[in-house]
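Supplementary Methods, section 5.1.

A reviewer requested that the exact input to the structure prediction be made available. We therefore reproduce it here, unchanged from the version used in the analyses.
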Amino acid sequence: MPRVLLIEDDPSVREGVELGLRRRGHEVRTAATGEAGLAALGEFRPDLVLLDLMLPGMNGVQVCRRVREDSQLPIIMLTARGDDFDVVIGLEAGADDYIVKPARTEVIEARIRAVLRRIEAPGAGRPAVEFHGELAIDRAGLTVAKNGERLALAPSEMKLLLHLSAAPEQVFSRQQLLEHVWEHSYHGDARLVDACVRRLRNKIEDVPGSPRYIQTLRGFGYRFGPL
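The structure derived from this sequence is encoded token-by-token as follows.
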């Protein structure tokens, strides 16, 4: 079972989530502050971080940015306010998903599994490495390179790029991407998609504001180029 680092300052939430995940077989390490959570990363070596947005001192957005400086470790943010501007900031900082508190353990477990689920290898007859302009996408090795230089993509960014590039020129709505990439079968939050697209463009595009690879069709969604 995945090892989970839970960074949450509310003792009741921290203890409840920890107990629920341990009952499902997860090894869990907890921290009450952002500083303590960062210190636990190297020692505990988790598979995923559950990160509270509203931490005292170093908040969740700052922690997320620090983790993303040298790691693509999956991050799910916990927030008590699902429609808050801070959620967007957290997603822009590199979070792969977010959960509104309070949340049942089965919901948290489902989100963990969705973020960590392995991406399927390419099907028969499909090359493992595909070249799209300057991009080389290795579907089997789950790596992406631009002009021969490997790019560091977070799990949600990798899944989004693989899904879009599997059907060049096909337009995908935000809801379709939520269902296929994030496995949100309900009417999900389009901010997850938009924030992930912006982060991905910053990594694969020469000029993110004038994208060649991931194009927006207003009123419809996104498609993969390249132009």
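The CA atoms of residues 53 and 60 lie 4 Å apart. These observations are discussed further in the main text.
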